[in-house]
Amino acid sequence: MPKPKVGLYWCASCGGCEEAVVDLAEKILDVVAAVDIVFWPVALDFKKEDVEAMADGEMVAAFINGAVRLSEQEEMVNLLRRKAQYVIAFGSCAHLGGIPGLASLFDRESIFQYVYGQAPTVAPTDVRPQTQVTVPEGELKLPEFWDKVRALDQVIDVDYYLPGCPPTPKVIANALTALLEGKLPAKGAVLASSRALCYECERNATKPEKPSLTDIKRVWEVIADPDTCLLAQGIICLGPVTRGGCDAQCVKGNMPCTGCFGPLDRVHDFGAKGLSAIASLFASNDEAELEKLADKIPDVTGTFYRYSLPASFLFKSRAALKGDGQ
Amino acid sequence: MTTKITVDPITRLEGHGRIEIFLNDSGDVDRAYFVIPELRGFEKFAVGRRAEDMPQITSRICGVCPTAHHMASTKALDDLFHIEPPPAAVKIRELLYSMFMLEDHALHFYFLGGPDFIVGPKAPKAERNILGVIGKVGVEVAGQVIAMRKELRELIAYLGGKVIHPVFGLPGGVAKGVQKEDQERFVKAAESGVDFALFTLKAFHDLVLANKEYVDLILSEAYTHKTYYMGLVDEQNRENFYEGMIRVVGPDGKEFERFKVQDYVEHVAEHVEPWTYVKFMFLKNVGWTGFEDGEKSGVYSVAPLARLNAADGLATPKAQEAYEEYLQTLGGKPVHQTLANHWARVVEMVYAAERFLELARDPEITSTEIRRIPTATPTTGAGVVEAPRGTLIHQYDTDERGILTRANLIVATQGNAARIAMSVDKAAKALVHNGNVDDGLLNMVEMAFRAYDPCHACATHALPGQMPLIVSLRDAQGNVIRELVRGE
User: Fold this and answer.
1) What is the DSSP string of B225-264?
2) Which end of chain B, N or C, is less surrounded by CB atoms within 10 Å?
3) For residue A41, what are the contacts with CB-CB under 8 A and spacing of at least 6?
4) Most confident range, picked from B11-20, B134-143, B463-472
5) Which residues from chain B sit within 8 angstroms of residue A245, using beta carbons?
6) What is the CATH number of domain A5-99+146-192?
7) What is the pLDDT of residue A317?
8) pLDDT of B454 over the 70 cut
9) Between B305 and B27, the higher pLDDT residue
10) Could you tell me if B215 and B362 lie in one domain?
11) Is residue B278 a part of any domain in this protein?
12) pLDDT of residue B456
């Protein structure tokens, strides 16, 4: 029997998802033995034409990481959608928009203005990169930089999600096993734990039944006890609202969970959920007291929507518009 | 009629580099452009974020060298919050950073740039990758490389929580220290790290330096540029990856300037071109005169070759020995041959490993005094490290709550951007004649930038370490008249 074919692709990303695949280390040999990788630009030379030549659905699965920002990326993910039976959004950027998705807070023009005009080291100039430019020798082209960043399911239909920034080798290996053994859950599932991070956190035993926040500490304001629940120490940890599966790596590093695995099932706006969950722990009913506590979270967007701004309700409607969101 | 050759890695459509070669009527190269079609706008969306989140946010610039951004950012936070970390925290940071440099350099040597030499620049493309390297150095060594990488990455995760996008940096220290019972593991890893680096140096001797053809290639004019060089140095002008003064030497090898990171705006500036998203660094006190060599051009270079030029020596014994031999063989400082970057990188591996061992053995790394709590009002702060790919600067301004009002990042590869563009152009002009373009020649053009280990080619940082390319020869109307595919 021929081996099942899979493809891997990256859009707007940092390369960390590819590194996570390489961190499968010796396990990567098992993967290569079990499947035929027919498209993986980082490692193998198959062209877009090769993918175009495939029959529709010829690949069992396409793993796509990165957010979508360029027309080329949109074309490529649409093509992969046609050629793959399953499309798996790989990592936070494809899943929810990721950290590059924070750029959606600004439009293209203001980003260009800063980067090529106002940044303190830029030599004064009116020159801006152009999508098409005539140099003495001919024409050069650059891809269009869109106004907004989109998560993968805002561009194409997605079957499964592998969460994390980046997904851990364990999560990746489990997903591959489920795929190869035909044990995939219902469409739309996120392939990690279905429980909150706290359940796999070594400090869970020290977590109060209902933590009560009388004060909020920013991470640099306090030396965190390495064995006690961070929320119990007044540090905003998103463990209670974040999907588990990473083995609480950041907490093992004595730093709080920032939510890269995204929301639990049936939660559609991670930031809103996180914000309301934390706010519900504020140990006061006095308005002035509450305000004081809220002031200790000076960047709500960056705290609760760090990995999920494009997938938030605020941006979903804009992203539903084609391309630029124009 | 002008013919355009596009060398386009079909890898990262956003993150890759693309080479565009314009041929004239006689089929010689008019000019080759190195185009970076990428921009994500990190500096812009940093505004409004909490300063303490920057080490984790900026690490997402690059998943291959997240530790470099994390560290430069953490150091900018020390400065921003006016807080000096305790000595143990500084040592732990440098310990982790040395492991990272060793691991990252090894990856480049064996997986990316190395195959060009270990297997050969004109070897069949199917062999010019990590598998070809394994063929040359043996399965046992390959296993050692993989095992070394794995152990170092596990130890980085021990301290950093995660190896890809670590979380341990805080203003005034680190979030986690080394337990006494675990110190031995660091020492063992460092000891084998030193052996491994020395083995790599020997492999470089046996496989590259023993081959006259390769040495001639390294020394050839096609791969030579005389520019300024930048690197971090300690009080005695010895190379340092983690801290020190930024030193610039001229094309003549003499010190041109030496400054602390806080003054960087007085010394470096960025030039914008319309055909690429990357900004080109140049020395403000020399000025931008175009993509040119020489002391009148502000173009400078960073990364291993530049660092060894900018320093007067190395602080550990075996690395110093390797450095002296490197200089003797190449005719003394400064070394202008771009391909010598590969050798310089191996010399730096020895330094990183020896420094790792020194710090792993230091009893202070198990101290629990690893944090100081800032009390001063944050204002502005800058931090610098030597990333594997060169001098990396982060600078933030904040309001009194520590919320960013402005960010400026001078990313390592930007420091080489102008010289890389020049190297690609020069190599193309020297190697492509009469419209003759084959896979081996194109690889040799590509070698001109691969030597710098540029980060926008992060694509090449993974197995099997070769950048797949499509090369299209187009006429002036853009019609493809010939197509070459390489990288299978």
Assistant:
1) ---EEEEEE-TTSBB-SSSSEEEEE-TTSSEEEEE-GGGH
2) N
3) A9, A10, B9, B10, B11, B12, B459, B468
4) B134-143
5) none
6) 3.40.50.700
7) 65
8) no
9) B305
10) yes
11) no
12) 43
pLDDT in the model for residue B462: 28
Is residue B478 over pLDDT 70? Answer: no
Average pLDDT, chain B: 87
Mode of pairing for the β-strands spanning B255-259 and B245-249? antiparallel
Q: Report DSSP state, residue B435.
A: T
Q: Which of A148, A11, A168, A143 has the alpha carbon at shortest distance from A74?
A: A11
- With beta carbons less than 8 A apart as the criterion, state whether A65 and A93 touch: yes
Judge if B146 and B20 occupy the same domain. Answer: no
Instruction: Clarify whether residues B120 and B210 are in a common domain.
Output: yes
A253 touches chain B (CB under 8 A): yes
Range B41-59 average pLDDT: 95
> Cα(A83)–Cα(A196) distance, rounded to whole angstroms?
34
Residue boundaries of the structural domains of chain A: 5-99+146-192, 197-295
Averaged over B209-218, what is the pLDDT? 89
CA nearest to B406 within chain A:
A119
Sheet holding B380-387, edge to edge: B380-387, B390-398, B404-410
Mean pLDDT over the full length of chain A: 90
Instruction: Say yes or no to pLDDT of B15 above 90.
Output: no
The domain that holds B94 is classified in CATH as 1.10.645.10
**Residues 6+ positions from B339 with CB-CB distance below 8 Å:** B217, B218, B223, B447, B451
**CB-based contact B45 A223, cutoff 8 Å:** no
Q: A29, A39, A45: which to substitute to probe chain B, counting the most B Cβ within 10 Å?
A: A45
Q: How confident is the model at residue B360 (pLDDT cuts 50, 70, 90)?
A: very high
Q: Do B298 and B228 touch, CB atoms closer than 8 A?
A: yes
**Partner residue opposite B161 with nearest CB, options A25, A106, A249:** A249
Q: What are phi and psi of A67, to 5 degrees?
A: -85, 170
Per-residue pLDDT reduced to its tens digit, B327-348 = 999 999 999 999 999 999 999 9
Looking at this predicted complex, what is its ipTM? 0.95
Chain B residues near residue A127 by CB distance under 8 angstroms: 272-274
Query: Tens digit of pLDDT for each residue in B223-281?
Result: 999 999 999 999 999 999 999 999 999 999 999 999 999 999 999 999 999 998 889 99
Q: Do B168 and A140 touch (CB under 8 A)?
A: no
Nearest to B229 by CA among B249, B244, B255, B246: B249
A27-34 and A169-180 are packed helices; what angle lies between their axes, rounded to 10 degrees?
A: 20
> B99: domain range?
84-224+337-373
- Chain B residues with CB inside 8 Å of A119's CB? 43, 270, 408
pLDDT band at A43 (very low <50, low <70, confident <90, very high): low
**Within a domain: B112:** yes
Tokens of B441: 């020649």
Retrieve residue A53's tokens: 């030549």
Contact call for A298 and B50, based on CB within 8 A = yes
What residues of A are in contact with residue B13 (Cβ under 8 Å)? 11, 70, 72-73, 76, 143
Taking CA atoms, what residue in A is nearest to B37? A142
**B12 vs A10: CB contact, 8 Å cut-off?**
yes
- Mutation site for A-interface testing, chosen from B43, B53, B60, B84 by largest number of A Cβ within 10 Å: B60
Q: How far apart are the first and last CA of chain B?
A: 32
Whether residue B109 is found in the same domain as residue B204: yes
How much is the pTM?
0.93
Asked whether residue B274 is assigned to any structural domain, the reply reads no
Of chain A, the end-to-end C-alpha distance in Å amounts to 48
**Is the Cβ pair B40, A103 closer than 8 Å?**
yes
Same domain, B95 and B205: yes
Q: Which of A17, A119, A302 sits opposite B408 (nearest CB)?
A: A119
Q: What is the pLDDT of residues A123-156, one digit of tens each?
A: 999 999 999 999 988 888 887 878 889 999 999 9
Partners of residue B477 in chain A, C-beta under 8 Å: none
